[in-house]
């Protein structure tokens, strides 16, 4: 060993190396790797949880957006339906009003017709009555005239015959 | 324990320590050391006196035996953790789980920060190296006694306070850096790593110097009985703790930095051809 500074011994260096290599292997297998794996697993677990939470948040956001869109669409639909209904109601009202007007006009015209007819009938019956009255009167008159005329004629005939 | 009782206890223990210290100073002596301080300190660096027999096959430095013991302790600890602790890991960690995760996370993070490419192996390497340096340095605090071939009882030093251990760690780190260069840039990676040819030397001797200086100071302090009171609390424990942390950090940081540097892929710069016509025009202009 003399001549080598600080008593450096290559065999002992190799023994130290052998010792450390075994220690390195054992520490890696028994301690470093399992602890690191556990830490990575936990990190992955929390990352997974985080991504799931983010995904859930994104889903909730999209659900919210879709709900809001649906709400808006529904409002829009309700508004459109309302408009359509009000238009329909208006149209129905117009239609019914027109029908009512038509009916009223019909009733009025019917009433007028009826009144005219009744008037006509009244006039006719009145005319008839008048006619019958006139006829009666005329008949009476004629009869009276005929009798007097016949008498006159008789008288005239008689006078002429006398002549 | 209220304040009064605590104060009484502190005064009592201080008095006992003081009595022991006075006794030690009065009785004199060098604390049972058989060699002179020069021999002890020279041996701490050179390991030419106190050697330990490795199963009767070879006499080795105490640092190697300390290395085997540290590795054994660490492997047993890792095995216990693997069997009893890791399977019971929870998503919300307890204190011990948090400690393990913190240690792994520090080295993994260091590898990822300093090397954007191929940092999986680097993380595992600096984890093992950092843990070995830290635990090995703290190991000297235990003062495990062994018998040397010369028949002296010595306490085992840190494994990397042995020059052979430090050279191993420095050279291995350099090889790891080179492997990163090869994996990232192929043959060019070797060239990039060889540019820092002084790196294995600087890594090895920085580690050796830092740890041996700590060991020498501790050796010096413990050599004299009169300095064995209060001072070791600061020198022995705090300094050891500090340089365990610092050396583990320095080596792992340097390794990961160099690894990141050499494994970074070099992008080829597109060649720009100089327009010939333009040159002629300028020449013509100059002539005119």
Describe this structure in words.
- The complex is a heterodimer of chains A (163) and B (288).
- By secondary structure, chain A is mainly α.
- Chain A has one domain.
- Chain A contains one helix and no strands.
- Chain A has one helix at 10-162.
- Helices cover 71% and strands 4% of the residues of chain B.
- Chain B contains ten helices and four strands, in the order H-H-E-E-H-H-H-E-E-H-H-H-H-H.
- In chain B, helix 6 packs across helix 7 (187-194).
- The longest helix of chain B has 33 residues, at 231-263.
- Chain B starts with a helix and ends with a helix.
- Classes of the chains: A mainly alpha (163), B mainly alpha (288).
- At the A-B interface, helix 1 of A face helix 3, helix 4, helix 5 and helix 6 of B.
Write a concise keyword list for the protein shown above.
heterodimer, A: 163 residues, mainly alpha, B: mainly alpha, two-stranded antiparallel ribbon, 10 helices, 4 strands, disordered C terminus
């Amino acid at each position: 060993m003399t001549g080598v500074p600080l008593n450096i011994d290559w065999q002992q260096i190799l023994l130290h190396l052998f010792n450390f290599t075994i220690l390195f292997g054992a520490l890696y297998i028994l301690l470093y790797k399992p602890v690191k794996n556990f830490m990575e697993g936990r990190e992955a677990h929390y990352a997974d949880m985080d991504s799931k939470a983010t995904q859930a948040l994104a889903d909730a956001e999209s659900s919210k957006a879709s709900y809001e869109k649906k709400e808006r669409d529904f409002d829009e639909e309700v508004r459109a339906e309302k408009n359509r209904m009000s238009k329909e109601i208006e149209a129905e009202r117009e239609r019914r009003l027109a029908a009512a007007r038509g009916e009223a006009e019909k009733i009025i015209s019917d009433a007028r017709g009826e009144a005219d007819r009744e008037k006509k009938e009244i006039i006719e019956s009145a005319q008839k009555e008048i006619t019958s009255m006139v006829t009666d009167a005329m008949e009476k008159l004629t009869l009276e005239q005929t009798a007097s005329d016949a008498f006159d004629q008789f008288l005239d005939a008689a006078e002429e015959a006398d002549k | 324990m209220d304040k009064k009782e605590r104060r009484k206890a502190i005064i009592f223990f201080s008095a006992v320590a003081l009595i022991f210290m006075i006794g030690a100073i009065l009785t004199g002596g060098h604390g049972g050391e058989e060699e002179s301080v020069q021999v002890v300190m020279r041996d701490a660096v050179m390991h030419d006196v106190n050697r330990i027999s490795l199963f009767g096959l070879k006499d080795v430095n105490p640092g190697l035996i300390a290395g085997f013991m540290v590795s054994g302790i660490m492997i047993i600890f890792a095995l216990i953790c693997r069997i009893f602790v890791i399977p019971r890991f929870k998503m919300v960690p307890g204190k011990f789980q948090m400690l393990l995760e913190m240690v792994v996370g520090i080295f993994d993070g260091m590898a990822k920060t300093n090397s954007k490419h191929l940092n999986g192996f680097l993380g595992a390497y600096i984890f093992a190296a950092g843990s070995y340096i830290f635990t090995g340095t703290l190991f000297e605090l235990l003062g495990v006694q062994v018998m040397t071939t010369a028949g002296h009882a010595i306490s085992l030093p840190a494994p990397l306070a042995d020059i052979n251990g430090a050279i191993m760690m420095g050279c291995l780190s350099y090889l790891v850096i080179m492997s990163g260069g090869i994996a990232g840039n192929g043959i060019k990676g070797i060239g990039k790593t060889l540019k820092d040819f002084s790196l294995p030397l600087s890594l090895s001797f920085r580690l050796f110097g830092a740890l041996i200086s700590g060991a020498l100071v501790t050796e010096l302090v413990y050599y004299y009985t009169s300095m064995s009171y209060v001072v070791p609390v600061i020198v022995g424990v705090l300094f050891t703790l500090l340089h365990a942390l610092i050396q583990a950090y320095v080596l792992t940081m340097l390794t990961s930095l160099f690894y990141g540097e050499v494994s970074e892929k070099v992008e080829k710069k597109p060649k720009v051809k100089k327009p010939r016509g333009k040159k002629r025009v300028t020449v013509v202009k100059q002539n005119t």
